[in-house]
Amino acid sequence: MTDLSLWGLFLAVGLGTFALRLSFIELYGRLRIPVMLHRALAYVPASVLAALVLPAVIFPGGGEFALANPRIPAAAIAALVAWKSRNILFTLVAGMGTLWGLQALG
What angle do CA 64, 104, 58 make, to 5 degrees? Predict the structure, then answer.
């Protein structure tokens, strides 16, 4: 692949990404989406975050699953604190404190 065709590919992908994102910004408010879809879209950020975080917790560094992994109980405790307190700061302190404590214990 020549340098010119590679830069052309970069430009085409960049323009496509820009057009896709611009379409959502420009069409926002002009189109009516069904109420059921609007309610379902409220769960998208949480599901995307879970899809990004869970593999890092279960398979740290791309390794294999191990029950001795201290990230699993730390994540479970953080989830419990988040559920009960609904406070981000408490959740971070509980999760990271648990992780650091378990890592210190070895």
Answer: 25
